[in-house]
Amino acid sequence: MRTIIIYVHPAKKGHNASFLERAERWLRENDEEYELVDLYEKGYDPVLQKQEHPSSGTPAVSEETKRYQEKIKGADRLILIYPIWNGGPPAILKGFFDRVFTARFAFRYQRLPFPIFGLRARPVGLLRGKKAVVFLTSGSMRWTQRLFLRDFYRVAAKKAVLSFCGIRTKVSLLDGCTGPLTRRQRQKIERMAVRGLRWLF
C-alpha cells in the first residue's frame, strides 16, 4: 500500500508547509510508505497542449503524464495540500488535474439506455478503491464561505475531480490564513492533520 502526497505551494514555511510537515511526521511515526510530489519544486508545466486534448482526435499522452498516472494508479491513498487562490486551486494544480486525470484513465462515460432530460451518458469513476484527504487553506472565513458561496471551496475540492473519478474523499479547510502562521493555527493544523490521516488509514 502506497501513499502519495501532492504538495502545491511555492513556500516552504507557513500554513500549507505546516500541514505537509505534520503529515510527513505522522507517516514516518506510523511506518507508512509514501512519496512526496511537490509540483512547484519539480517545476511542473500545467499547460495542456493542443495535441493532448481529446479534440485533437487522437490525444497524445506525454511520458511525464504517463509516469504520474502510474504513480496514482499504484497508490492506495492521496494527500493533497494546497491553498485557495482567486476562488480555486493554484493554476499549477488545475493543470495537473487537466493533464493527468484524463478520460479513460480516471473516468469514462457510460451510455444510458435512453436519454434522461437530454443526458445520453453518465460518468463512471475509474479510480475506485482509493481514498484521498485534502487539506485546504483559505484567507476568507469559513462562515462567509458557507453564507455566500454555499461552502463552494470544500465541495469543489471533493466533487469536481476526486469523487468524480471514484476516489473516496475527505476535505479539511483551515480558514483565516491572511497573515503569518500563529500558534493557535499551528495547534489547529495538528488536530486537523491527525484526524484526516486517521480517516485516510
Give your account of this protein's structure.
The protein has a single domain (3-200), classed as 3-Layer(aba) Sandwich (Rossmann fold), CATH 3.40.50. A hairpin with a 2-residue loop joins strand 4 (107-116) and strand 5 (119-125). It has 201 residues and is an alpha/beta fold. The strands form 2 sheets. Strands 2-1-3-6-7 form a 5-stranded parallel beta sheet, sandwiched between helices. A two-stranded antiparallel sheet has the order 4-5. The chain has helices at residues 15-29, 63-74, 91-100, 142-149, 152-159, 183-200, and strands spanning 3-7, 34-38, 77-83, 107-116, 119-125, 131-137, 168-174. It contains 6 helices and 7 strands; from the N terminus they run E-H-E-H-E-H-E-E-E-H-H-E-H. It starts with a strand and ends with a helix. Helix 1 packs across helix 6 (183-200).
Give the overall shape. globular
Which fold name is given in CATH as the topology? Rossmann fold
Instruction: Outline the biggest β-sheet.
Output: 5 strands, parallel
Q: Strands of the biggest beta sheet: in what spatial order?
A: 2-1-3-6-7
- Kindly give the count of domains: 1
Provide the structure class.
alpha/beta
Radius of gyration of CA atoms, rounded to a whole number? 18 Å
Mind telling me which CATH architecture this is? 3-Layer(aba) Sandwich
Flag low-confidence runs.
none
Q: What is the number of helices?
A: 6
What is the CATH superfamily classification? Answer: Flavodoxin domain
Which bin fits the share of residues in helices?
25-40%
The mean pLDDT is 93
Q: How many distinct beta strands?
A: 7
